[in-house]
Design goal:
Layout lengths: L2 H13 L3 H21 L6 H17 L1 H14 L3 E5 L2 H15 L3 E4 L3 H5 L2 H6 L4 E4 L2 H8 L16 H12 L7 H18 L2 E4 L3 E3 L4 E6 L3 H7 L3 E7 L3 E2 L5 H13 L6 E5 L13 E7 L3 H5 L15 H5 L1 H6 L10 H12 L1 H4 L1 H4 L6 H5 L6 H14 L5 H14 L2 H5 L2 H13 L17 H10 L1
Parallel strand pairs: 1-10, 2-3, 2-4, 4-7, 5-8, 7-10
Antiparallel strand pairs: 5-6, 6-9
Helix pairs in contact: 2-12, 16-20
């Protein structure tokens, strides 16, 4: 068993019995579920929209090189610069070159899960750069010394009382529970950071190939501020985020907003297509887009599982997942948690260390039913399990156990051997630390069906 798997089991065991944690996450997710349900009515045919987004993303994945090259060509024509990075190390090395060239010591970041994926904050802080998260949720978890809890709502695990206590402790402000007041406190602190920052960093919800643009979706305006004041802007994005045309945004933006938060459309939707032009009053002097592979082409090469790259990071599968609702985001110890994280993480970070995530699922199919791009998530989890077994990554005791079970199932005398009392002792011994830890162990009937059937025939 890998260390990641051990930590996951230990953390899950604690979180699932933490009543206060479950109260907070179920309260917060409950609000989203109601909004998403009501928001479905904005679509004349929501299911047709899902089919359309799925078709477009599937076509893109089958022609990914074509669309990425089209984006690069159109983006560079407008003065932007594209950097290709095979993995996290290459991405960080290229970003460091930009910081050294600009002698940059401060950066403002809007919400970007891809930067979390490559551990950008830690990398820059070790080199003396002040990194400030400007998304309110990200700012809260940064102050709290944590990673994002949810790919859309980073501080979902915290109540307003928790945030009030955090601000009082870290910022030295009076204890205030009013969300609007707390937001104003953060806004006043961040405003000066925007003005002083040397570099702004964003992620991207979509890469738009035909116009060479980066589409950024947000509810607070922090991404726009991060791309307006600093003289240099860096966008970090996975290569799978590309869509063919600006026309496609008319479908993808409402689908993303609805599935993520239940909104008809997100408050701020920005298309960035390069640095400031001579006739423009604001914007960066230089704009870089770092296109990251980091395991994506490995997944792309797997025909059965490549549909996982269709994901638009709406977070709907997390909100629907009964496992996520009980153990929460931090337990996964990965950038991407929940069902989609359990599918892609073993391919991004190694099957041997993270195969356990694909087993942490009830396979109820709730995730598949809410996915706006119709990713067959519960089937992909099964395929990951199958792959881990084929690669010989199952524990030795599990392999031996199934061999013994198979032999017994093929031999009726083995199945009847020892009677129910011996079998019950064996079950208690084998599963007392897993199934039996928090449950009453099942007891086998005194006589098997086979034995009862034989007696019936005799009579």
């Amino acid at each position: 068993m890998s260390k990641a798997s051990e930590h996951f089991l230990q953390d899950a065991d604690k979180k699932v019995f933490d009543k206060e944690h479950r109260r907070k996450i179920n309260f917060n997710i409950g609000k989203y579920e109601n909004s998403v349900k009501n928001g479905t009515y904005q679509f004349a045919d929501h299911e047709l929209g899902r089919k359309r987004t799925s078709f477009i993303k599937t076509q893109v994945m089958e022609n990914l090189d074509k669309y990425l090259m089209e984006f690069e060509n159109n983006f560079t024509k407008q003065g932007g610069k594209v950097i290709w990075a095979r993995d996290a190390n290459e991405a960080l090395a290229e970003i460091e070159k930009i910081f050294k060239a600009k002698n940059a010591k401060s950066v403002v970041k809007s919400k970007t899960m891809t930067s979390e994926e490559i551990h950008l904050n830690e990398f820059l802080e070790k080199r003396g750069v002040e990194v400030v998260e400007t998304d309110l949720g990200e700012y809260i978890v940064q102050l709290n010394g944590q990673k994002p809890y949810h790919i859309v709502t980073p501080a979902m695990h915290m109540s307003r009382q928790d945030v009030s206590e955090l601000f009082e402790r870290k910022l030295g402000v009076p204890y205030i529970e009013d969300p609007q007041e707390l937001t104003l406190i953060a806004r006043n602190i961040l405003r000066q950071k925007y003005l002083n920052a040397d570099i702004g960093i964003t992620g991207a919800n979509f890469i738009v190939a035909d116009v060479g643009g980066i589409s950024v979706t947000e509810n607070e305006g922090n991404a726009r501020m991060s791309t307006t004041f600093p003289k240099t802007q860096i966008t970090i994005v996975g290569i799978e985020k590309v869509i063919p045309s600006i026309i496609d945004l008319a479908l993808f933006l409402p689908m993303l907003a609805h599935s993520g938060t239940g909104q008809q459309i997100t408050v701020y939707n920005t298309l960035l297509s390069g640095p400031r032009k001579p006739d423009e009053t604001d914007g960066p002097d230089e704009m870089y887009v770092v296109l990251i592979d980091n395991g994506r082409t490995t997944l792309l090469a797997d025909v059965e599982k490549r549909q996982a790259l269709n994901c638009i990071r709406c977070g709907a599968c997390l909100n629907a997942c009964p496992v996520y609702k009980n153990i929460g985001g931090h337990t996964y110890n990965t950038t991407y948690s929940g069902p989609i994280g359990s599918v892609i993480t073993p391919h991004y970070r190694g099957m041997e260390d993270f195969k356990h995530l694909s087993f942490a699922s009830s396979l109820c199919g709730a995730c598949t039913s809410v996915c706006p791009v119709k990713i067959d998530l519960h089937n992909l989890l099964l395929l990951n399990r199958k792959q881990s077994v084929k690669e010989g990554l199952s524990p030795k005791w599990e392999v031996r156990g199934f061999k013994l079970f198979t032999m017994a199932m093929k031999n009726r005398s083995w199945m009847n051997f020892g009677g129910s009392s011996l079998k019950n002792i064996a079950l208690s011994f084998l599963f007392k630390n897993s199934w039996g830890k928090h449950r009453t162990m099942p007891e086998l009937a005194p006589k098997s069906f086979n034995e009862q059937w034989k007696e019936r025939k005799k009579k």
